[in-house]
Amino acid sequence: MKQPVYLTSKERYKQWTLGIILTIGGFLISIPFIWMILSAFKTESEVMQIPPTLWPSEFTLENFVNLFANMNFTVYLKNTIIVVLFSFAGLFLNAMAGYAFAKFNFKGREKIFYMVLATMMIPGQVTMIPVYLILNQLQLTNTMAGIVLPGLVGAFSIFLFRQFMSTIPDELLEAARLDGASEFRVFVQVVLPISKPILAVQGILTFIAGWNSFLWPLIIANDEALYTLSVGLSLLKGQYGGNFALQMAGSTFMVVPIIIIFILFQKHIIEGYTISGMK
Predict the structure, then answer these.
(1) The organism sits in which domain of life (predicted)?
(2) Other C-beta atoms within 10 Å of 252: how many?
(3) What pLDDT shows up at residue 241?
(4) What is the pTM of this model?
(5) Which of 56, 67, 145, 185 could form a disulfide with 42 if both were Cys (CB 3.0 to 4.6 A apart)?
């Protein structure tokens, strides 16, 4: 039985002092986000008020109504959800690639894996031009397919899956094969259920990346009907630069889901990275 650890009064004092300092620092850092969220529920006149107010004198949803009624945010939200859903579908492809690198012996496996890792050192901005030219030849520019296809697979995701799946016992997979399961069935019914921790991590990161997608949709799409929320927020800043309450509403709509997801699942993110790094 594990013995309880008792702290001395000096250690307990240091722990409380550090906790108080971190709490105060966290609150100070959060003030701009708190002000942004509360300002989204203010009228434009109150946002421009000097001195500024933190708490709205009268809560209003007019800014959010304007976003969806007059600013095309319904279309932007639909496109962003499509990007996120296709990115989730890409997780399956990344998991399959990670499983192949982890559990199959084939010629050139290590060299191919190192080539995949090498792509992580290439900035995304460098590959955008050749990818754009390829999609242009395929007549996929200014289409939703052109937006989602480049994001289906990623070297970092393949790496994490490979690291995690390398820890799965080979005996377990052999037992499933002896029972007559095909390789695809072994992957779906044995490997994926065991890989729930890393799937949760990748799902969270995929959601954040898809929700914040900005540069690639802006480059590949010429039609405003294909823009995502991030691009729509940029347009909002340009077209309604003087309406700060409306901009706060748009920023809040973009940021709050990410904050909620991170707060709820940050434990899974840290644990997933720890497990993937163990060999």
Answers:
(1) Bacteria
(2) 21
(3) 67
(4) 0.81
(5) 56
What sign for the dihedral angle of Cα 179, 181, 186, 189?
A: negative
Residue 53 DSSP class: -
Q: What is the DSSP letter of 149?
A: G
* Alpha-carbon span 161 to 110, nearest angstrom: 15
How is residue 270 written in tokens?
């840290």
Please count the residues of the chain: 279
Closest CA to 86 of 150, 130, 129: 150
Phi/psi region, residue 106 (left: phi>0; alpha: psi -120 to 50; beta: rest), is: beta
pLDDT in tens, the chain (279 residues): 455 555 677 778 888 888 899 999 988 888 888 888 888 888 888 878 878 777 888 888 888 888 888 888 889 999 999 999 999 888 899 999 999 999 888 888 889 999 998 988 888 888 888 899 999 999 988 899 899 998 888 888 899 899 888 888 888 888 888 888 888 898 988 898 888 888 888 888 888 888 888 888 888 988 888 899 888 888 887 776 677 888 888 888 888 888 888 777 777 666 655 555 444
- Say if residues 195 and 95 touch (Cβ distance below 8 Å): yes
Q: Which of 131, 156, 129, 101 is nearest to 272 (CA)?
A: 156
Helix, strand, coil share (%) of the chain residues, nearest 5 = 75, 0, 25
What whole-number distance in Å separates Cα of residue 46 and Cα of residue 217? 34
In the block, residue with structure tokens 């497990």:
275
Tokens for 57?
């004198």
83 token code pair: 């990007």
- Give residue 167's Cα distance to chain centre: 25
Contacts of 193 (CB under 8 A, 6+ apart): none
